[in-house]
Amino acid sequence: SNQFLTLNSGHKMPIIGLGTWQASDEEVEAAIDVALEAGYRHIDTAPIYRNEKAIGRVLKRWLDAGKVKREELFIVTKLPPTANRASDVAATIKKSLADLQLDYVDIYLIHTPISVLTNEDGTIKLDSEGIMEPDLTSDITTTWTEMEKVVANGQAKSIGVSNFDQEQLERVLKIAKIRPATNQFEHHVYLQQRDLVDFCKAQGIVVTAYSPLGSKGIAKYNAVVGLVRDLPDLMDIPDVKQIAAAHGKTPAQVLLRWIIDRDIVVIPKSTNPERLKQNLDVFDFKLTAEESAKLSKLDQNFRVCDFSLLRGCERHPEFRFKNQYTK
Ligand code: A2P
């Protein structure tokens, strides 16, 4: 059931990966085990998800037992906003590889175009109100040049970006000796970002869709910072439910298939065994042209991951996430 897209680096990327944000260590260890058993080979993580060590432990068990070969895995991790500056790239990828217990990752992404100031211990510097301070000295193009060295060192097979808009990508492309292989951003029926998708495709940059199912789980994080927002349930949209029923599939499977059909990688997150199996089982049905068009008409420019969790980030000049739902 695993299908692949070929990146501009020549490497193949499984079109479905397992998202791991919003999962605890214990949840993640169990989920990765089930996921590998179910056939997932692509796993998406990041230092800010705080689960690289847990993932590393499971991968080591599988690799040591010979149940999977390293070259069959596709592991994604990211340079966090706390280290998004040229001088921090080398030490940060080294730490991720140590935590993941790997010699290399398949792709290393700049997690956000935003950079934030940190305390001595590398945690985000917050004022008494919990507001972070943007780092105005960092620059995505000098960071990119350091990212290229990660490939030269063999620590990543490919490199890319995440949460970049077209203008930010253009700036990187202008100086890039190695072009970004992917741009990972929020993409689903309610936030389609067609211009950005088209631009990436025209530039040979594979789109990776995060929150492909609408990321309802973000609500509990929003609550922590006192943010109350009504989040839509994409799996409850009547058109989605009706199309799912017509194929004997679930709404989640329809949402994922609609994305994959346009050669976009998806990384649905689940820690539930049934649901994570379900999310990989999307190749035995086909959406009709009418169904696909119906889903394409659902766009609402509704951004779920609007960076509200990083309070103060809107003061950063690279912040581009304002939309009608972002205050
Ligand atoms: P759970 O981990 O309990 O399955 P996204 O990938 O867009 O961030 O969405 C992930 C959210 O959707 C999580 O809350 C996850 O919960 C839930 N989810 C993942 N897969 C499915 C599915 N097949 N059906 C229903 N909910 C799902």
From TrEMBL:
Organism domain of life: Eukaryota
Keyword field: NADP, Oxidoreductase
A matching Pfam family: Aldo_ket_red
NADP-dependent oxidoreductase domain segment(s): 16-299
Keyword match NADP: yes
Site, as annotated: Lowers pKa of active site Tyr: 78
SUPFAM superfamilies associated with the record: NAD(P)-linked oxidoreductase (SSF51430)
GO molecular function: oxidoreductase activity
UniProt family annotation: Belongs to the aldo/keto reductase family.
Residues at which substrate binds: 111
Protein name: 1,5-anhydro-D-fructose reductase-like
Active site per database record: 49 (proton donor)
